[in-house]
Design goal:
There is one protein chain. The protein is an alpha/beta fold and about 400 residues long. The protein folds into two domains: about 170 residues, Flavin prenyltransferase-like (Rossmann fold); about 210 residues, 3-Layer(aba) Sandwich (Rossmann fold). The chain is built from 13 helices and 20 strands.
Length: about 400
């Protein structure tokens, strides 16, 4: 495994990436750029990997170092990847050891960008990232969070565990190549008045994890995304929505020739029948909210003559299997993922889910605790198998 570390403040996190890769059984060769060594030293990586650390084309006189490193690598990961190195890789520049090695390499490449929001959103960076993605590079992140200089925004390095998961995925199946998936994620907000709404605790993490897993396996993904708090998947066609009605319209419009629909969104079951046109004032007394049901998107899809693979989600506190089987049958689903909610540390906004997978045909997955990445991978496994049978 070749780990390239470039000169950003997030370079210190590359040490954990190296440790996780080494702990997974990889032999890790680390290449530091000159600027990376201003943030973290080679001795740290040498201690973690028990391998020499390189930073210059001339570190091994008499040896063509960049060629050897490129040919030995089964995969390469750049974490963090600055805007500068992304531009180099997109344009074929090779003026240091890392860029020369990656230009020579023919192995899978994972890039984990980290930079300030303005740099990430600049058209030049967007174009460079798209070039690299079209060439087969896997882009992990960036995510929103605290940045250098005390700023907040999109540009923070993805978590080391997510970067290593992307490296693992580089060796994984491409069994959704040529398939189209529509995936919904996040909550819906049903307006009470111009400033208030009925909503839920969903952040969109689960649906975005599924979108990421499907993209890694070659699928074309349309992500219908409610107002969550997680950055959408790079590479997906994102359709932002707010209400259940908007989500219904976007999903129906996107289904077309889709092979599968995964409704991971936490769609509100009810909405105010009449939203106030102006802000409700406290001194006017407590308003009477009359609710009505929102559209049942899965039920509508399940009644179609040409029906894609349908995967639903159910958030339950009690009688998980009975509730899940009822939903599986009544909405003509192929799979339903039943989440147990209400336990601290799992479910909405967390990194794990207590969930079971129930199938209309085939084996079920019993209730257990999954990371969202694990659950997303399991769902994609099932979808790929069902599509293969069709």
């Amino acid at each position: 495994m070749l780990l390239g570390v470039t000169g950003g403040i997030a370079a210190y996190k590359a040490a954990l990436v190296a440790r996780l890769l080494e702990g997974a059984g990889a032999d890790v060769s680390v290449v530091l750029t000159e600027n990376a060594s201003r943030f973290i030293g080679p001795d740290t990586f040498a201690a973690l990997t028990r391998e020499p650390v390189y930073s210059s084309l001339w570190d091994r006189p008499g040896e063509v170092l960049h060629v050897r490193l490129a040919h030995e690598a089964d995969a390469a990961v750049v974490a963090p990847a600055t805007a500068n190195v992304i531009a180099k890789l997109a344009n074929g520049l090779a003026d240091d050891l890392l860029s020369a090695t990656l230009l020579e390499a023919r192995c899978p490449l994972v890039i984990a960008p980290a930079m300030h929001t303005g740099m990430w959103e600049h058209p030049a960076t967007s174009a460079n990232v798209e070039v690299l993605r079209e060439r087969g590079a896997r882009i992990v992140g960036p995510v929103s969070g605290r940045l250098a200089h005390g700023d907040e925004g999109l540009g923070r390095l993805a978590e080391p565990e997510d970067i290593v998961a992307a490296v693992r995925a580089a060796f994984g199946p491409r069994d959704l190549e040529g398939r189209r998936l529509v995936i919904s994620a996040g909550p819906t907000h049903e307006p009470i008045d111009p400033v208030r709404f009925l909503g839920n605790r969903s952040t969109g993490k689960m649906g975005i994890a599924i979108a990421n897993a499907a993209l890694e396996r070659g699928a074309a993904v349309t992500l219908v995304l409610g107002p969550g708090t997680v950055a959408p998947s790079a590479g997906a066609h994102v359709v932002p929505v707010e209400t259940a009605e908007q989500m219904r319209d976007a999903v129906i419009a996107s289904v077309g020739e889709a092979d599968a629909v995964v409704m991971a969104a936490a769609v509100a079951d009810f909405r105010p029948k009449q939203a106030a046109g102006s802000k409700l004032k406290k001194d006017a007394g407590v308003p009477d909210l009359i609710l009505e049901p929102t559209p049942d998107i899965l039920a509508e899809l399940g009644e179609r003559e040409r029906r894609p693979i349908l995967v639903g989600f159910a958030a339950e506190t009690d009688d998980l299997e009975a509730s899940g089987r009822s939903k599986l049958a009544s909405k003509h689903l192929d799979l339903v993922v039943v989440n147990r909610v209400g336990r601290a540390g799992t479910g909405f906004g967390s990194e794990t889910n207590d969930a079971m997978i129930l199938a209309a045909e085939g084996e079920n997955e019993p209730l257990r605790t999954w990371t969202k990445a694990e659950l997303a991978s399991a769902i994609c496994d099932r979808v790929a198998t069902l599509l293969g049978r069709r």
